[in-house]
Amino acid sequence: MFSRISQVARHLSRPLPNYAHNAAAAFTYKMTSPSAAADERNSRTIHTAACLIIGDEVLGGKTMDTNSAYMAKFCFKLGMALKRIEVIADDEGEIVEAVQRMSNTFDFVVTSGGIGPTHDDITYPSIAKAFNLKLQLHDETLAKMRKLSKSHGSQQNFSWDEDSPTRRARYRMVELPIDPMRDDKSQVIFSQEDLWVPVTCVNGNVHILPGVPRLFERLLDGLKPHLVSRLEDPEGKGMHRILISTPLVESAVAPYLTELAARVEPKGVKVGSYPKWGKKTNTVTLVGKDLECLESLVDEVSKNVNGYRVQIEGEDDKDTEEEAKP
Questions:
Q1: Looking at the DSSP assignment, which residues form a beta bridge with residue 273?
Q2: What is the band of 8 on the pLDDT scale with cuts at 50, 70, 90?
Q3: How many helices (H) and strands (E) does the chain have?
Q4: What is the DSSP secondary-structure string of 116-163?
Q5: pLDDT for 286-325, tens place per residue?
Q6: Looking at residues 220-235, what average pLDDT do you find?
Q7: According to the model, what pLDDT value does residue 232 have?
Q8: How confident is the model at residue 7 (pLDDT cuts 50, 70, 90)?
């Protein structure tokens, strides 16, 4: 009897036949299909963020990037940890690599630039390629473009009803990377009612925005209602920063700040030190989500760095300038 039981045990312990493994693999793939994975990314709690600036003009020094700074402030106010800012060229391979990597690494990704009507605006087709999507003429976006956009004075003879190079150029801006297996509303977001330009969300967490600062800022601000419920703090209280001005050089305050940083890190507080070249004061910062905890440290830090609290960066420069007057 015992030998019979042993034979049954050996039989049950054998590897499954190939067809069984294949069926299991097929089931797993179905459950983790690209569309399902994108839906999961689109609903997960947002802890981390990244910003990808796309444009030869930024790398060539023709245009100054202000969008990444705006993105940093946006994330700070909402309590998202902005972990990465990158600037890359209008190059398909670079765009594909960057968005794939960022989408896999961070919860909330924003791209800026490269969605205009000219030949070098390749962000939409490049991101479509990155996630194996096709560009689709998006009817709702086209309708909004026709309704809300205004023709330039040099295009007085332009007609939406006639094929022309100008119309084809405009159509390039409404050919969006769309996953037909996913809900359209989660992929094309009109974050400002008076703007036809949408925020296209690809792979569940890559949000494509224009590079024009005025548009970038308005569209990003308009995303806030879509993000608040997914924040660690749904009330959107965000991060807080306290500034303390000190007349001491960094080497003089370094030992104390090192000890302080190690002591308050478990409380979620980050301690920073920032020298101001050519000025008589430097700045110590306390950053965290717990405002009460930050406030409790102000007197201690001020005393140990022989400083005082300021409300605005550079406010203490005015004080030293006044002292220098005869």
A1: 284
A2: very low
A3: 13, 12
A4: SSSTT--HHHHHHHHTT-EEEE-HHHHHHHHHH----GGGTT--TTS-
A5: 999 999 999 999 999 999 999 999 998 778 776 555 444 4
A6: 90
A7: 85
A8: very low
- Over range 84-91, report the average pLDDT: 97
Q: How many domains does the chain have?
A: 2
What domain range includes position 100?
A: 34-230
Quote the tokens at residue 253: 């305050």
In degrees and rounded to multiples of 5, residue 85 shows phi and psi of: -130, 125
Per-residue pLDDT tens digits for 154-203:
676 788 888 898 899 999 999 999 999 999 999 999 999 999 999 999 99
Q: How far is 58 from 90, CA to CA, in rounded Å?
A: 10
Q: Which amino acid is at 161?
A: D
86 and 148 belong to one structural domain? yes
The Cα 160–Cα 32 span in angstroms is: 42
The 3-class SS string of 252-310 reads HHHHHHHHHHHHHHHHCCEEEEECCCCCCCEEEEEEECCHHHHHHHHHHHHHHCCCEEE
CA separation for the pair 232, 173 (Å, rounded): 34
**28 in a structural domain:** no
Q: Are residues 244 and 220 part of one domain?
A: no
Distances (CA, A) of 286 to 73, 137, 158, 239: 16, 48, 56, 10
Task: Tell me how many degrees the CA angle 40-43-45 measures, rounded to the nearest 5.
Answer: 110
Total residue count of the chain as it appears in this document: 326
Query: For residue 245, what are the β-bridge partners?
Result: 283, 308
